[in-house]
Hints:
2 domains, 31% helix, globular
Amino acid sequence: MLIERVLPPAAVGEDAHGDPSPAAGRQALFPAEEREIAGAGDKRRREFATARRCARGALTRLGLAPVPIPTGPTGAPVWPAGVTGSITHCDGYRAAAVARTADLAGLGIDAEPHAPVSPAVRRGITSPSERAHLDRLHAVRPGIHWDRLLFSAKESVYKACWSSVPRALHFEDAEVTFSPETGTFTAHLAAETLVLTGRWHVCDGILLTATALPASSDS
């Protein structure tokens, strides 16, 4: 399973490389979820259904019963009590990952197409030091779109932090560096005095990142 190549040991995941038929997608949803996307277009409905199916598969692998997973006011999925998790999707790929909050305080995953971002987006998501870092990485491993990978890593970081950091995070709030040798990355959030580590992987035109916040020692 592709998603498990980037997950921390305490997390489990489920992924899919396609969507079911519209009828099968409807059958995969709980009534509350069906109502949530009642007015959505076919593409959105199918990716939503597949992502929820992946999420329930991950919960089952964690030893929990399948339950509805609504969308909260911030747009993040609402997990059962005692569970943290993350959902991602891009063209041709959907994934979900979960862990118990006794093990992880937060979990973030992100999937992106393995393609470069525009110059304007690159400037908007990076600091000068990150741009210099990406240039050095490109010289060593030119086959990887490091700018898109950085975008993905920051998305994973913000998902992992959303329930623990009491403010909205932006691209300039995290400074990310990659290790091309180990398939890992480090994110420094200076204002929160947080340092997160994660993993990345590129395969079949898709790049994946994942990171997590460890549970506090007194939880």
